[in-house]
Write a structure and sequence with these properties.
690 residues, alpha/beta, Aspartate Aminotransferase, domain 2, 3 domains, 4-stranded antiparallel beta sheet, 17% strand
Length: 690
Amino acid sequence: MKQATIDFRSDTVTCPSKSMLETMFSAPLGDDVFGEDPSVNRLESITAELFGKEAGLFCASGTMTNQIAIKVHTQPGDEVICDKLSHIYQYEGGGIAFNSGCSVRLIEGDRGRITAEQVKVSINPTDIHKPLSTLVSLENTANRGGGSCYDFSEIERIKQVCLQNNMKLHLDGARLFNAIVAKNETPQQYGTVFDSISVCLSKGLGAPVGSVLVGNTAFIQKARRIRKVFGGGMRQAGILAAAGIYALENNIQIKQSKLSAESDKITLLQNKLGTLPNLNGGASYSSNWGRNIDPTSNTYSTDQTQSVSLSLNSSIDLFSGFQKINTIKQSDNNYQASKYDVEKMKNDIALRIAQAYMTILFNKEQVDVSKNQVEISKMQLTRIKNLVDAGALAKGNLLDIQAQEALEESNLIAAQNQLDLSYLDLIQLLDLKSKDDFDIVKPDITMGNDVALMPTNQIYTYSSTIMPEIKSAEFRLKSSFNGLAIARGARSPSLSLSGYYGSNYADNFLDYANPTITYEGLKPTLYVVSGSGTPVLQTAYSLEYQKMTFKDQMKNNLSKSLRLTMTIPIFNNYQVNAAISKAKLNTLNADYNLQLQKNQLYKNIEQAATDATGAFKSYNASAKAVDSYKEAFTYTEQKFNVGVVNPIDYNDAKNKLIKAESDLLKAKYNYEFKKVILNFYQGNPLTINK
């Protein structure tokens, strides 16, 4: 039965997961040459949208997407500028010359990375004797540069040089997602700078095959034609495109980079939006009976009443000692720090996986050594038994050998148990469901003649600029200074603007302005005509007031207000001073933490270098000891076979050899692991040198 393996040679040897295979087998298919494969169309659309480009083109390989891009961007006789370690020059079979008829201007960059200044001086002048410089190609990450990543600011400077000289800029992004995660960038950033981008699906993303080329619509139309000329047109290619879709939507590393700092990202957005005015609406309904205030007369009443009020209010802080601005800065720094915290966690897991892998390698060899010793003991036991049966040796010799065999059987069981436990540890780290049919690839590790380690100071100088724990601590320190500025801002006067717009309605509110008038005739008054005593009459009217309508009440009772408020802090029970003092302590603590992280990093590097040197010396000493004990055991075994040496001396020589071989294995894998750590601190991927 085929075993599942972990192959550390390259990210190109990954195999599809069960879920990816299921997605591939169930993918809707069509003829991609006719543009009718829905899975291919979706993959191209997803990838283009991811980078903010208009269109995409699915191809069989990264070499094909690179060569198509070069062919579209250039004419025969043009010149392409790239680093001398570039994949397009080193590993694409001379395709630049063969496919596009172009020459290449090679630049001596830094681990596969070139600068804007180098590009500028490499552009040919307008001269009929020289080829036209029309294209610059970058590679990020740089494969032969050990996975080195560009600083995005340098890419932007290179873009400016290209614009100034009417040149196109292409990106070989075979492992671009690795760079995006490592540098905390976004695909959209790259989409805004490059004219074309090649993205590989089978490196890092785990898809079995394929790359996608993205650019504007006109570029992709030309690229599609070139793909056909190159023989790259595929029919029902959706079964392959489905794996790319699954990889883009489900890759753990990408998902984790998006979700790791979601809380801080939300907080950052909240604080940014907190600078805008707020707007709140209010509505209330009340029913009153018994003794209550009559809204029509503002006097007490026992009538049952119902009322409704509606309102809008808004406010904005015009000035608060720059607290909101500093809060936004603090949230941004916290967000950046939290993303680096996730990277630190991933690094820790990666190191634990590497250590678990090395432990398995050690335990596998330990099992092999134990099996070999058991076989030797069994052969020796058979020989001694025959001699005892023949009467040539005493039975005590046989018992001693049997005891040695039993001991070595026990050692084999213990070694096998340690191997099983180390497999279990790795399986749990990888979050696999079962260890059935699981194995690892065993590299051929060759020890050199001397210790080839970079000085620890150089390793630390570079490592301190890239390790996520240092980056996180630096952002936490910036955040603490933002916190101090926020606390100090509380001493400043604050200025706010607020407004109100509202009205109300009551069901017993009468319309006094529009009464119903009824004529009731002439009625005597209290006055009389002088001399006759006849009462004075007057015209009598009765007034009837109707309840005012909801619409009229809301209109008549409308209330508006605008308020400008200044608050000057004078005395706040020492709260502001206490907050400032605590913020200062936080900055000191953050600075101490940064120094602690740097000291710990330097300590780790020093420790790894010291351990590697010690392990190498121990390996050489153990190797000499193994040679000596092998020779001694061979000599003792020969003497034992002729009865000159007793079983005790024989077993002692054998046990010394077993211990020496075990010490040799420990030193070998300890040295290799420490080298892996030191390479990791230099920004290189976790790999084992063969």
